[in-house]
Amino acid sequence: MKKSPIGIFDSGIGGLTIAHALKEKLPNENIIYFGDTEHLPYGEKSKTAIQNFSKKITQFLLDKNCKTIIIACNSASSVAYQSVKEIAGNTPVFNVIQPVIDEVVKQCSEYKIGVIGTKATIQSNSYEKKIKALCSSAKVLSLATPLLAPMIEEGFINEDISHTIIANYLSNKQLASIDHLILACTHYPLIHQEIKDYYKGSVKVIDSANIVVEHIANKLKKDNLLSNNIKTEHHFYVSNYTESFEKSAQFFFKEDLKLKEVKIWD
Ligand code: DGL
């Protein structure tokens, strides 16, 4: 069991930021990644559609003997966590939301917490509900920022065009008084620095990928599920292959990789 791979999935390639952080933190683990490139963006899909896609992908990862499932997508974590847990049974499931919230409200205060993410994530209100449940004095100010994920996928980072789009969203009056900002999309670690530069230290920008991976590493250690593989093997599956996805995937994972197309819907 310990030697079995860790299964990670996302709507596409954004979750590779989590896979990358995981590989850095736990270099002895095998990873099986599934990106649902046929159905992205999840941020624009209905709750039912995201739940159905997530269940099917979870079954694929379980069939590959994964010892744990990581939902490396905020949209799916927001609306499909329970559905994935039902399919996974005794296999532990992690989402990318709860560890971040636990960290931010570790000491509850009258925080004004901004949250940016896809339409599905923001409309689900999942961050606000979970933050309020732990810290009722915090205020949550959410804004959907749907242009950011495709912008990042196209490689527009640290350029005039990305500065303009980011500034346009962050200057929205909805976020005017925030003291924390949660980057609630697995694409956003790639623009973390650019967002930090925008605020020049006036807002604490939360580094979600590292918080999530730290939490997973601690939990796997506690459950005695960490592997000591010396030689590791990672597999990257997508539901629809294109060369451009492969190029973007390398950029997100910060390493050369090959994507394999697999049909799991019929
Ligand atoms: N990576 C997805 C997320 O974290 C965003 C991309 C999408 O909309 O599919 O929500």
Characterization of this structure:
By secondary structure, the protein is α/β, with parallel strands linked by helices. The chain is built from eleven helices and ten strands. It has two domains: 142 residues, Rossmann fold (3-Layer(aba) Sandwich); 111 residues, Rossmann fold, CATH 3.40.50.1860. A six-stranded parallel sheet has the order 4-3-1-2-9-10, with helices on both faces. A four-stranded parallel sheet has the order 6-5-7-8, sandwiched between helices. Helix 1 links the parallel strand 1 and strand 2. Helix 1 packs across helix 10 and helix 2 packs across helix 3. The protein binds D-glutamic acid. D-glutamic acid binds next to helix 3.
Summarize this structure as a short list of keywords or feature phrases:
266 residues, Rossmann fold, six-stranded parallel beta sheet, globular, binds D-glutamic acid
Question: Topology, pairings included?
Answer:
Layout: E1 6-10, H1 16-25, E2 31-35, H2 47-63, E3 68-71, H3 74-88, E4 93-95, H4 98-104, E5 112-117, H5 119-124, H6 126-134, E6 139-144, H7 148-153, H8 160-170, E7 180-184, H9 192-199, E8 204-206, H10 208-222, E9 234-238, H11 243-253, E10 259-261
Parallel strand pairs: 1-2, 1-3, 2-9, 3-4, 5-6, 5-7, 7-8, 9-10
Helix pairs in contact: 1-10, 2-3, 4-10
The chain binds D-glutamic acid.
D-glutamic acid binds at residues 10-12, 14, 40-43, 73-75, 118, 121, 149, 185-187.
